[in-house]
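Q: Predict the assembly, please.
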Amino acid sequence: MLRIGNYINFITPIILLLTSLAAFSQEPASSPMVEQKKGSVRFTAKFEINGKSETLDRKRFYLIRGSRQQNAELLKNIAETSVTSRDCYYADLRRNGRKISDEFFCWLKTNDCESPYCREVKTKEEALSVPEFAAAYNIGLREYRQSALALKWITTNLPDDIRDGYYRQQKNVLGKLVDLAKFAGQEATRLKKGSTDKAAGFQSIMTDRLGNGYFLEVDIIPPENNKKETYLITNLLPIVFGDTGYVWTCEVEIDPDKPQAQINLKKLITDKKCEVFTKKLTEVCTLPDCSKSPEKPAEAN
Amino acid sequence: MKRDAWKIFLSKTTVILLVGLGLSSFCLLEISAQRRKNVRRSSGKVYNNFAHNIAAHRQSCSSCHKSPTGLSTAKTATGENYKYPDITDYPDHDACISCHRQQFFRGARPSICSICHTKVSPRDKARFAFPVPNKPEEFSIRFPHNVHQDIIAGFDEPPVRDNNIAAAHFVNAKFTPASKAQDEKKTDYNNCTICHVPASGKIYTTAPRRPQLVALETGLVIASHKEKFTALAGHFKTVPNGHNSCFNCHYSEQRPTRNECAGCHILRNKPLVESNVIERLSLKFNHDEATEAGSLAHDKECSSCHVRITQSADLRSLDPDVPIFTCATSSCHSKQVKGEISQRNDDLAERGKNPQYQIKSCSYCHSSYVGSFQVPDSHRAVK
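A: Predicted assembly structure:
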């Protein structure tokens, strides 16, 4: 006859094993509840160069939890990152034997474009005036047998290095910095409230044509004896003026009681809240003279 | 001692055997029940509907769909029609027959034909429109707004900025009518309007967005919604509903290309039934509203009000909502918005004294339906 004691002898180690397994699979105890509020900032990206005010329109800025000191590793990486200008990217391609026409350079320059994606090539005449576009248009014409479609889809037939090679190159550089910045924001959040929320402590915006952008619903966990929390605003990737690239890393204090608080880059610089990394471009690449009228390549039959 | 050890060994073995026996009988019973169910299913199944989300159909898209299959029509910005290669038709019979041969030849009118064909007849090739209109959407669309914004809005300043040239490419969302833009000879950079243009022709039925998120305030529900308000097409912007908005860049080289369907089309767990109802909270905002002088009242760029868009990485997390402060801090609407909120507070106080009191405020932006909800925190912050 089986006795209850024997069952207990048998079941106890199993229960102990299961309990210890369950205990191991638990997350470590989270930090005590912290008071959490939301703040928001209206950021205006303007700064003065050679006595002239410049608006940093359509530029990405990032908000990262913590002070400059807390984000020292990120700042070190920003300082060490080198930058290539658009003109030098295409000049390099040309030096490496790639045929890039003067007309293509000039199209980018006069349209203030980084790539052919910035605006549509509207007319056949315009397409035929730039050899790269003419070649793409002619491929399209042969494939689709319609002029309107060949024009509309001109970028699909452009070689990738001249179409978006510069964008991809910049994206690689920026991607590494953004990953570091996200990690810095997450790490600062984890230290503050024991949360591993990937979105916490990091935001990005693009400024509008007036240089304004909003950081909304910013997580605020103020330190003791202070109702504000310190964040870092930075553009990570240099914004180029002339032969110099600028990266601003500015400390801002966000007050949850002041919604849409105005923060101006110019004032932050004046108040010495920013560290500015200036990067002399390794090379200034001269563009061809764009005042000459281009010759028209032939249209495919 | 030996006898005790023997007894313990026996008792443990018995328990293990019993548990094992129980488990295996349960599994066997379950398997046989499942088999019976499957037999019933296969015998009673009517093959008159196609779903992408069943295991057998979760294959590479190109194993069935060919691209392109025909031409679709679209219009250029100047109104010129053009035809573009598109996926305009169902996959061929080959795509189905390898698994469904039996169903293809079942009876005089195999029900499987009715999935694509309007008539089940060997002599009639006519098919339903593709994709099938009014069929629940099995896929959602992945479109990273932030990536596309960075491409079209990228270039950092030329050394000497020419004031006649727009400084970047996300310029002045083109609320400006085409004729006016031509007059001004502005460079027409790619921006939101390459996908979102004023809606036209259609009048939508309307309902507020996310009503589940704004709980009704007990006792404050307006009994009757007498206000008659019809939103016109011009109140809204369109969203792309075909491949022409994507193929112009992603047809052959730029990934995801036309053959990499899963780059944009993500299979839903549950099909979505499309609705003609627009869910918007501030129903009365009219994108196309004109001033007395005839110019457009709302001529700022999209991201001046849709401030969250530039933070969005995909459509799922996209929140196009316009925070109230973008209007409440503007010189145009500040007075009215603040007045409405103040009026609302007075109304609530009045309602406290007189339960029959009708709350009328919030109608500057909202229909009375929304006005019956609780005032959200974002509005309380407006001072």
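Chain A touches chain B through 59 residues (CB under 8 Å). Chain A has a mean pLDDT of 82.
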